[in-house]
Design brief:
single chain, ABC transporter involved in vitamin B12 uptake, BtuC, mainly alpha, 0% strand, 260 residues, globular
């Protein structure tokens, strides 16, 4: 339980502030497509004897770069996201089924298996979380400027494309560290829901990132406790609690606006 709690906190600290940029840039489907590609990364890792983290990171990064490069060129962005998201998930499931000499717990990769994390997994998760948080802190102003206006970022001497690549790298690392905690199908939820729940509570971008981290951490620990108490799947329990906190935030948002 201690390892599971630490793993959940690590994922929350990586996903929550990154999720703020996902919400601001309206990239929810982008995150969904990247997370679905994680299953293809699992198949790659199993077929080549790579660590699962390495396989997922490689494929998630490749998918994110592919989406960024093809978006809006010859097909609409939402259509491209839909095609690549479902294609990556389907190809990953087919590829895993073709690996005969390895027994795979698909449910664990799809919905998470936080109670099975090892000390090595916790170390990988926290290393990834530290990398993501360091990237966001280092490029915070540039990412904010590029999110507000690409033209304004260029006028200020920044490169919006570079900031997008940094965001893409951070998302790929987050997907890779989160797959064992909440699974490929629920990673996008942990990116979007805590940030969306924090939005009505904050007056500044920095406060929104902080509140998102607190909500993500509360969801991870509360969902883990609820799963233990009621014998429910842990990954879905974490996301369900996050959704409940979002509902509370949305319900109290008018009162918060009036108080301001």
């Amino acid at each position: 339980m201690i390892r599971a709690g630490l793993a959940g906190l690590g994922v929350a600290l990586a996903a929550a502030p990154l999720g703020c940029f996902v919400v601001w840039r309206r990239m929810a489907y982008f995150g969904d497509a990247t997370s679905h590609a994680a299953i293809l990364g699992v198949a790659l890792a199993l077929a080549t004897d790579l660590p699962v983290f390495a396989g997922v990171l490689v494929v998630a990064l490749a998918m994110a770069l592919l989406l960024a490069g093809l978006s809006g060129r010859w097909v609409s962005s939402d259509a491209l996201l839909g095609v690549l998201s479902h294609a990556a998930l389907a190809l990953g499931l087919v590829a895993i089924s073709l690996i005969d000499d390895v027994r795979v717990d698909l449910e664990g990769y799809l919905f998470g298996e936080i109670l099975a994390v090892t000390a090595r997994d916790v170390l990988i998760i926290w290393t990834g979380a530290a990398l993501v948080c360091s990237l966001l802190i280092w490029r915070w102003q540039g990412l904010l400027m590029a999110t507000l206006s690409a033209d304004l970022a260029v006028a200020s001497g920044m490169n919006p494309r570079r900031e997008s690549l940094i965001l893409t790298l951070a998302m790929a690392v987050t997907v890779a560290v989160a797959i064992k905690v909440v699974g490929a199908l629920l990673i996008a939820a942990m990116l979007v829901i805590p940030a969306a729940a924090a939005r009505p509570l904050a007056r500044t971008p920095e406060m929104m990132a902080l509140f998102a981290c607190l909500i993500g951490a509360a969801s991870a620990l509360g969902g883990l406790g609820g799963s233990f108490a009621f014998d429910t799947p842990t990954g879905p329990s974490i996301v369900a609690l996050a959704a409940g906190l979002f509902a509370l935030s949305a319900a109290f948002a008018p009162l918060i606006r009036r108080a301001e």
